[in-house]
Amino acid sequence: MIDAETEHHRRVAVALKETSATLETLGTIGREITASLNIKDVFGALHRHVHHLLDASSFVVYLLDDDQRALNMVFGMELGQPLSQIIVPLDLPESNIARCAREQQAVVIHLEPDNDQKTLIPGTLDTRSLLYAPLIVCERLLGVMSIQTSLPDAYGERELSIFLALCAYGAIALDNAAAYAAAEASQRRADQALSELRQTQGELIQREKLASLGSLVAGVAHELNTPIGNSLLVASTLRDESTQFLQQVQQSSVRRSDLERYCQSAAESSDLLMRCLVKAADLIARFKQLAVDQTSDLRRSFDLRTGCEDVVLMLSSRLRGAGHQLEVDITDGLIMDSYPGAFGQVLSNLIINAIVHGLDGQMHGLISIVGRPKDKQHIVLIVKDNGRGIQAEHLERIFEPFFTTRFGQGGSGLGMHISYNIVRSILGGSISVSSPAGEGAIFEMILPLYAMEQRLGI
């Protein structure tokens, strides 16, 4: 009696020791499996530990497809060899795999030696014991995990508990890996979209630069028309007088007064011609500098007043055509070491914005540009018009890309956005807008006299 009782206690102690060791092993396995975010590594770890803890000649993992209508074999091994992938419809009545998924309960099957249903089991071994368990996370079915062996009655309560624990760890790991893969895919799509957006933005910025350069070309053509036209008039007049004087010489009818009159007229014509040509040459030189600045990112020192006047000069024909005036009031001697092309593009955008939006539909509008030193390192430049102003609900959006109140009328909605980015990223300053009632629109820029090195990526 005592020996029997002692043997019973010994067996209980051994069972408890084995259970404790198994639980400790499962805890270690669980930490390893759930720590991986790679789905292939999760499959490999599950396969390895299943063989360590249970008798399993076959190990298969099925996952629900996106439509929740079928189970796809995503991993299957039998005696170290991969199994052919299969798809099991969820509503297949004779499938134990589908039944396990539908009922979300473990299924244990022990077959008799003469059972003729072995064709339903993946692989080629003579299978006697099968164990299926659902992969569930937060009441959400992910799929089914199964093991099989040729040993009879191989899966009892202990084996079922171990397998369910492995399924729980596996479900968490697979869900984490799927979430990580989805996050990586989303990040790749976002990076691709951002890359395409930056490329598109770069192309649009180049188009804006070319459009601005086109305005300069039109402006200089109009400004050159006057001195060149005057030069042609003076030259043609001088030619006619020279022809007439030559005829008098050939006829020997030249008097002293005729010679003096011709010489005086030639001197006056030459002086006027020189002034017109010098003005044309000056316009061309200024246009060349503006063109270089507008189409490049060169940094140089320039006088703020002169830089503003050059831009205004190139837009003067557009201002006159619209019937508006522009006044420049900038303190003399404000020398900036910055990017004149970028600065000119911003100023040009602000002036054109005032013409197209602020003063649209009205005559005799006034645009003023006022520049003053703010401190020893900065200047403040204000571009103001006396137009209709900006509606309060538009003020916060005016620097947003593609925001325009002239949709479908040729406005790209990029002019102010590009100007904002240029001021912030290239000129190293700030720009703000206000529109007090009855005072039009006021754009204020605070710019450093010495710009930081240009930062890319606007």
Please give a handful of descriptors for the protein shown.
458 residues; alpha+beta; Beta-Lactamase; Heat Shock Protein 90; 2 domains; 7-stranded antiparallel beta sheet; 5-stranded mixed beta sheet; 9 helices; 19% strand
Q: Beta-strand percentage?
A: 15-25%
Label the CATH architecture of the largest domain.
2-Layer Sandwich
| Poorly predicted ranges | 12-17
* Span between termini: 90 Å
Number of helices: 9
Rg calc: 43 Å
Describe the structure.
There is one protein chain. Strands 1, 2, 3, 4, 5, 6 and 7 form a 7-stranded antiparallel β-sheet that branches. A 5-stranded mixed β-sheet has the order 9-11-12-14-13. The protein has 9 helices and 14 strands. The longest helix is centred in the middle third of the chain and has 94 residues, at 157-250. It has 458 residues and is of the alpha+beta class. The protein has helices spanning 2-34, 39-53, 96-103, 157-250, 256-294, 304-322, 340-358, 392-395, 415-426; strands at residues 58-64, 70-78, 81-82, 87-89, 107-110, 129-137, 140-149, 300-303, 325-330, 335-338, 366-373, 378-385, 430-434, 442-448. Helix 4 (157-250) runs antiparallel to helix 5 (256-294), helix 5 packs across helix 7 and helix 6 (304-322) packs parallel to helix 7 (340-358). It has 2 domains: 2-184, GAF domain (Beta-Lactamase, 2-Layer Sandwich), CATH 3.30.450; 298-458, 2-Layer Sandwich (Heat Shock Protein 90), CATH 3.30.565. It starts with a helix and ends in a 10-residue tail after the last strand. The chain is 53% helix and 19% strand.
